[in-house]
């Protein structure tokens, strides 16, 4: 087979590899279990896609994100690399055909969700495949110490040992603390430790935390001073629209994005932003994963996320081209309280989880002892109204059930119809002769979707309608008739979210939950939230704080963050400073308290000045911060 560099140049047209990519590729080609830690935008996917093409056989890629799997398959096919994905929400026949094609050597890469890896069909078919590499994307999901733990990942080690003991394994992640790095290798059963880690330092990225009560006004100031493309991260879908509308009113080219939009809407908005037709995207964290846009100059968080890992990944979408860029967190004292409240909501008690599970059984009308592997349309809002449950707590309980391996929650991902030709050329030609109205549409299918006689292809009814000079309703009717005649298999578009029962339904009182593990996960989540609050409230180089959290304790000051450049130096008169200092000292003599509580003791219009005064007092040693985060007079 070709060399890695020749494959890179042939399929991706890049002249050379990025730092560490070639070392990682050579490591797995030499048969070593390998862990690759590359920051966001570091080119992780090439580290398994290139070696997959260097050896006979297929590379199995385990990924938790259906949308990302589908995008990777689409991009690979565009480059002429045969690839497919298997995930919950596909029909049994689609899955069966995809697996069988893989056994016959039809693909170089096969993407699977971790849940799908454990099914009897997957185990039986993978045993027949010539697997050249097992790649584990988002490998931090295997660790309970990590920020996105997913229990199905824990089964990968035993699966690999049973089916693919001699196949090299490549684990990849963008962010992992030292304890997570060790845990990944342990849980996946590495035969020897082999870690390639690029420094997490981003020398061109200026981090800032700005204390602001009027965040939208400050956002406008930032956008006026920083030109170029940007992302604005908010916590809720409603906020994406509110921020985008405000920016539009101020004359900024802006749009909004969240997971509740249709596939067509998400694709259009994403493409407009990537191509520069939209300057600013206001979005939830559903936006950005796997998007290749190097010239993002600005990422603003309107509120802190619930982990340093999440913030580092999202902020890291700025400046991938190496040019000066900015990551800004707009912070107010109430943000700390909001984070802690959201944390409490995200960890419901066990009885609440049992109540939701019981209601879910009634909602889907599954009998006890049935339902394993079945998917059901699921509308969270309707579910909560039907059983008079609070939506945030109910969603949190569903996520616990997902973590514990009882269910899987699916977004509306199958938003395009899918078609596969089921018969050979002669039978198809005969059908076209006998059905002239279908002839044009079948011709369009064969020309527009190469491989449709082997694989299911996502199709556009509108494109077929234009080609056949008819309307989409007529195209859909023809496809349904052809399906009844067993000429093709037509899977209509599905725009509904779904819930999949991964285990047979049991009575709620018999629901087994790992209480110790859930308590541990809650404690870890609390630690991550407190780390975010410390990052926002500690007057120290922002980059050094992030790097220390990720295990790079010896990093030097960056010189370009808000602290290093003195951008947050007190800009208040001496008279105002003395007045605030006296009031601060009076409050601290009464009771030691954290910075955010101290700030909220002042009127909102004074709070930005209070923060600057506190920063000055801390830097001069007139105040000190204790180990538990409280301020006191030394």
From the spread of the alpha carbons, the general shape counts as globular
Radius of gyration: 27 Å
Spatial arrangement of strands, main beta sheet: 3-4-2-5-6-1-7
Q: Write the CATH homologous superfamily of the largest domain.
A: P-loop containing nucleotide triphosphate hydrolases
Instruction: Decide which structural class fits the backbone.
Output: alpha/beta
Low-pLDDT parts are none
Topology:
Elements: H1 4-12, H2 21-29, E1 34-37, H3 46-54, E2 58-62, H4 66-78, E3 83-86, H5 92-103, E4 109-112, H6 114-117, H7 120-126, E5 131-136, H8 156-163, E6 169-173, H9 178-187, E7 195-197, E8 205-211, H10 215-225, E9 229-233, H11 237-249, E10 254-257, H12 263-274, E11 280-283, E12 296-301, H13 308-315, E13 325-331, H14 333-345, H15 350-364, E14 375-377, H16 380-386, H17 391-403, E15 407-410, E16 418-421, H18 425-434, H19 436-448, E17 457-458, H20 461-468, H21 472-484, E18 488-491, E19 498-501, H22 515-537, H23 542-549, H24 574-590, E20 593-594, H25 595-600, H26 607-619, E21 624-625, E22 630-632
Describe the structure.
The protein folds into 5 domains: 4-197, Rossmann fold, CATH 3.40.50.300; 205-331, Rossmann fold, CATH 3.40.50.300; 341-413 and 496-523, Winged helix-like DNA-binding domain superfamily/Winged helix DNA-binding domain (Arc Repressor Mutant, subunit A, Orthogonal Bundle); 418-491; 574-632. Helices cover 45% and strands 15% of the residues. The chain has 26 helices and 22 strands. The strands form 5 sheets. A 7-stranded parallel beta sheet has the order 3-4-2-5-6-1-7, sandwiched between helices. It has a 6-stranded parallel beta sheet with strand order 8-13-12-9-11-10, sandwiched between helices. A 3-stranded antiparallel beta sheet has the order 14-19-15.
């Amino acid at each position: 087979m070709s060399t890695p560099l020749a494959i890179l140049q042939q399929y991706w047209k890049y002249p050379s590899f990025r730092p560490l990519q070639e070392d990682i590729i050579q490591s797995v080609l030499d048969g070593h279990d390998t862990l690759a830690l590359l920051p966001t935008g570091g080119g992780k996917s090439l580290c398994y896609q290139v070696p997959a093409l260097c050896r006979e056989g297929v590379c199995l890629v385990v990924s938790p994100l259906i949308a990302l799997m589908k995008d990777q398959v689409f991009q690979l096919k565009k480059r002429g690399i045969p690839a497919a994905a298997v995930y919950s929400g596909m029909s049994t026949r689609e899955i069966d055909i995809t697996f069988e094609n893989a056994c016959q050597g039809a693909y170089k890469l096969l993407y699977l969700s971790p849940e799908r890896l454990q099914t009897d069909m997957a185990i039986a078919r993978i045993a027949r495949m010539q697997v050249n590499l097992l790649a584990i994307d988002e490998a931090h999901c295997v660790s309970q110490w990590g920020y996105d733990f997913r229990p199905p990942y824990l089964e990968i080690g035993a699966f690999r040992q049973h089916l693919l003991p001699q196949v090299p394994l490549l684990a990849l992640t963008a962010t992992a603390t030292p304890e997570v790095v060790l845990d990944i290798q342990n849980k996946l059963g590495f035969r020897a430790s082999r870690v390639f880690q690029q420094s997490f330092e981003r020398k061109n990225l200026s981090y800032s935390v700005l204390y602001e009560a009027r965040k939208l006004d400050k956002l406008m100031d930032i956008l006026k001073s920083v030109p170029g493309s940007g992302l604005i991260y908010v916590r809720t879908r409603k906020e994406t629209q509110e921020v985008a509308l405000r920016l539009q009113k101020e004359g900024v080219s802006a749009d909004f994005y969240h997971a509740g939009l249709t596939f067509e809407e998400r694709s259009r908005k994403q493409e407009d932003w990537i191509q520069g037709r939209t300057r600013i995207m206001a979005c939830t964290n559903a936006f950005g994963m796997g998007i290749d846009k190097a010239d993002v100059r600005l990422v603003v968080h309107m509120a802190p996320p619930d982990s340093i890992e999440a913030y580092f990944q999202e902020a890291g979408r700025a400046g991938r081209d190496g040019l000066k860029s900015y990551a800004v967190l707009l912070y107010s004292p109430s943000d700390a309280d909001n984070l802690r409240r959201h944390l409490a909501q995200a960890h419901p008690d066990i009885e609440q989880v049992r109540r939701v599970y019981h209601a879910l059984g009634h909602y889907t009308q599954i009998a006890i002892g049935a339902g394993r592997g079945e998917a059901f349309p699921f509308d969270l809002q309707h579910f909560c109204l039907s059983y008079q449950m609070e939506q945030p707590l109910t969603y949190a309980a569903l996520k616990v059930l997902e973590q514990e391996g009882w269910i899987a929650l699916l977004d509306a991902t199958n938003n395009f119809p899918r078609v596969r030709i089921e018969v050979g050329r002669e039978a198809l030609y005969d059908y076209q002769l006998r059905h002239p109205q279908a002839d044009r549409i079948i011709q369009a299918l064969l020309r527009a979707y190469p491989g449709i006689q082997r694989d299911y292809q996502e199709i556009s009814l509108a494109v077929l309608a234009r080609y056949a000079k008819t309307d989409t309703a007529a195209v859909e009717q023809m496809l349904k008739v052809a399906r009844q005649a067993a000429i093709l298999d037509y899977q209509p578009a599905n725009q509904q979210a779904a819930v999949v029962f991964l285990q047979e339904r049991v009575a709620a009182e018999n629901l087994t939950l790992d209480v110790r593990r859930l308590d541990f996960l809650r404690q870890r989540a609390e630690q991550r939230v407190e780390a975010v609050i410390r990052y926002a409230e500690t007057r120290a180089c922002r980059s050094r704080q992030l790097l220390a959290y990720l295990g790079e304790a010896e990093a030097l000051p960056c010189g370009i963050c808000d602290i290093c450049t003195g951008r947050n130096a007190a800009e208040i008169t001496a008279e105002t400073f003395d007045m605030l200092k006296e009031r601060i000292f009076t409050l601290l003599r009464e009771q030691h308290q954290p910075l955010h509580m101290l700030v909220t003791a002042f009127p909102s219009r004074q709070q930005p000045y209070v923060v600057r005064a506190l920063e000055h007092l801390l830097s001069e040693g007139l105040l000190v911060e204790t180990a538990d985060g409280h301020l006191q007079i030394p």
